[in-house]
Design a protein that fits this description.
twelve-stranded mixed sheet; four-stranded antiparallel sheet; 3 helices; globular
Length: 254
């Protein structure tokens, strides 16, 4: 493929990313293949959920979860790891899950998630591995394991429909906040997205454990573990596609 410098019209188009000759941001859609996921649920404090939630989103229930992904084969990004902490939230009649914290091992994934989706992604080291008869997922930031989750290794196969017993985590709600270079607000939005073409190859269920450690730069501990609930190990393919703007703070009169 021959590179040609961008025109002004090219720069104005959607999907443009710098540096133009080796762009950072992948264009939609891109495919994730053979992703391994450890999903763990725990009961937490509803007041803690409300504290983290931007208005006018509303908290739903008292359950939080974390997905720890081992992304084995991803367009553009290659293999990497990701962790997404979520809890139930709603906007009007729209039900979904809000993500207060995300950790990735990929600079491309961090940049894409923050600039396009508005997800609060930070660089870190999530891991997912089998240690004998136990799945162990960890989320490291600043040399601290801020979350450790465990699940028995493949004891109870289950229907993938059981993966979302508490809230629809497939509908991800995010707060997108970007300023102009002079410090004035450029984007203040609530965004929503769903994964597409999801194919679950296997799914296993069991009792889980969740341990949180304090870290001022990744304060997952703000969602305390009052009771660990069930966990799932699953393996899937899916596609990341464009989402939508569901609320624009700058277009709504205060």
């Amino acid at each position: 493929m021959t590179l040609t410098p961008p025109t002004e019209d090219d720069i104005r188009k959607g999907g443009f990313s710098t540096p133009w000759d080796a762009p950072m941001i992948p264009p939609f859609p891109f495919r994730f293949r053979n992703a391994e996921i450890l999903t763990v649920y725990w009961r937490t404090d509803p007041a803690a959920m409300a504290f983290l939630l931007p208005p006018p989103l509303r908290p739903e229930g008292d359950i939080a979860c974390c997905h720890i992904y081992k992304m084995n084969d991803t367009d553009w990004l290659g293999p990497y790891a990701e962790a997404n902490v979520m809890f139930g939230a709603s906007f009007g009649a729209r039900q979904g899950a809000y993500s207060p914290y995300l950790v990735l091992s990929s600079d491309v994934g961090v940049t894409h998630g923050r600039e396009i989706h508005g997800q609060p992604k930070k660089l870190g080291k999530p891991t997912l591995e089998a240690r004998g008869d136990l799945f162990v997922g960890t989320v490291e930031r600043n040399g601290i394991d801020v979350l450790t989750a465990t699940l028995p290794y493949k004891q109870r196969p289950c229907d993938p429909a059981r993966l979302k017993p508490h809230f629809d985590f497939a509908t991800n709600l995010n707060l997108k906040a970007i300023d102009h270079i002079d410090g004035t607000p450029a984007i203040r939005q609530l965004t929503s997205r769903r994964l597409s073409d999801v194919v679950v190859h296997e799914c296993w269920e069991g009792p889980c454990t969740v341990e949180l450690r304090a870290n001022a730069q990744m304060p997952i501990f703000r969602l305390p573990v009052l009771e660990p609930l069930q966990g799932f190990y699953w393996r899937a393919d899916f596609t990341l596609v464009p989402g939508e703007i569901i609320h624009d703070y700058l277009k709504v009169a205060p």
